[in-house]
Amino acid sequence: MIFRQTIPYLSKRITLPQLSPTHSKARIVRFEVANGDSVTDYDPFMTIECSADMVTEAFRDFPDQQAVMLIDTQEVGIIKGVKHSLINQWIPVGTELGSIDDGDPIDGDWTWQAYSVNDTDTQ
């Protein structure tokens, strides 16, 4: 009898996540990983500063408030092709940043989680 894995683990494309329906761009403060690093669920991937449009103006402390977020991965594999040259640049959501390779072809975008971080944590 042959047993096959029913849930395939395929490589994933890493993109800058859209954290709200209105969120348009972010600045990568730092990557928490380097190319060749092994990652698994809940590993920190990057810290970003989001454009003010991520949060509705009525919920901001001041008009141009920009949230700082820690993004972690929900994927398992090896980090490949991370574009460290994008650090400190404002880039649109959806921009490809690299991949998480598990030896199989890329089949889509990665899954992630985001957590709010104090501004002082990024300095």
Using brief descriptors, characterize the structure shown:
123 residues, 0% helix, elongated
How would you characterize this protein structure?
- This protein has strands spanning about 10-15, 25-30, 40, 45-50, 70-75, 75-80, 90, 95-100, 105-110, 110-115.
- With about 120 residues, the chain is mainly beta.
- The protein has a 5-stranded mixed beta sheet, with no helix packed on it. Strands 7-2-4-5-10 form a 5-stranded antiparallel beta sheet, with no helix packed on it.
- The protein is elongated, with a radius of gyration of 16 Å.
- The mean pLDDT is about 85.
Largest sheet: 5 strands, mixed
Mean pLDDT: 87
Quantity of strands, as a count = 10
Radius of gyration: 16 Å
- Beta-sheet strand percentage? 35-45%
Order of helices and strands: EEEEEEEEEE
Which spans have pLDDT < 50 for at least 5 consecutive residues?
Answer: none
Q: Structural class from helices and strands? A: mainly beta
Number of alpha- plus pi-helical segments: 0
Separation, N- and C-terminal Cα atoms: 57 Å
Judging from the principal axes of the Cα atoms, what is the shape?
elongated
| Strand order across the largest sheet | 3-6-8-1-9
Q: Helicity, in percent?
A: under 10%
